[in-house]
Specification:
This protein is mainly beta. The protein contains 1 helix and 14 strands; from the N terminus they run H-E-E-E-E-E-E-E-E-E-E-E-E-E-E.
Length: 211
């Protein structure tokens, strides 16, 4: 299946300009957590020596202060004969919400490096974004900056294009949030290069319903 660049974004890329009333792509469409409940993301890493792939699924959905939060958990799925690989071992857990015109928010992230809880939440990306737009958010004592670098190729093992590439940095330096994310309509995060993981890029290989 081929996925195409959003028409307005493609037009802007060809001409260098966008319609004067174009606010940008609606980033809620790129983080459709509710539509992915009951599905599993399957990822492989660019490092072909890795003895596991990564599985992601929404493990919790709750309503807090009129905001629906979705927790996505990523775990190991062992491949090969590595006796040190632990099936189902957690890799990363992230809790997200969509807050209308306030944008896409991150409430919590946990890895083996520790847990970060953001109260108030970190505004990960604004509701409407165009190429080169920047979102800044004060959270956890740091300033986080999310730059939408481009709409383009997707780092996936599928015939898709039209991914939004978002690069996240922090005034406090690399942590469990910072890195590069690729997101696409309908499927949310389909590629990730996290700063704290010590690994290469995770690439979506499949997206399937849970049995």
């Amino acid at each position: 299946m081929t996925r195409w660049l959003p028409i307005l974004a493609l037009a802007a890329g060809c001409t260098g300009t966008a319609p004067p009333d174009f606010r940008g792509e609606d980033m809620e469409d790129y983080f459709p957590w509710a539509g992915n409940v009951g599905y599993q993301w399957q990822f492989v890493n660019e490092d072909v020596t890795l003895t596991y792939r990564m599985l992601g699924e929404i493990v919790n959905e709750e309503l807090i202060d009129d905001t629906r939060r979705f927790t996505v958990e990523y775990v190991k799925d062992c491949i090969g004969d590595d006796p040190t690989c632990v099936e189902g071992e957690p890799i990363r857990s992230m809790t997200w919400s969509l807050q209308g015109n306030l944008g896409v928010h991150l409430h919590r992230v946990e890895t083996d490096a520790g847990e970060l809880v953001f109260e108030p939440s970190l505004r990960f990306i604004d509701r409407y974004m165009k190429r080169a737009d920047v979102t800044t958010s004060e959270a956890g004592g740091n300033t986080y900056t999310s730059t939408l670098e481009e709409f383009g190729d997707c780092p996936v093992l599928l015939d898709w294009t039209g991914c939004a590439k978002i690069v996240v940095t922090s005034s406090g330096g690399p942590d469990q949030v910072t890195g590069t994310y690729w997101v696409i309509n309908d499927f949310a995060i389909v590629g990730a290069l996290w700063d704290d993981g010590g690994l290469q890029t995770w690439k979506l290989s499949n997206h399937v319903p849970l049995e």
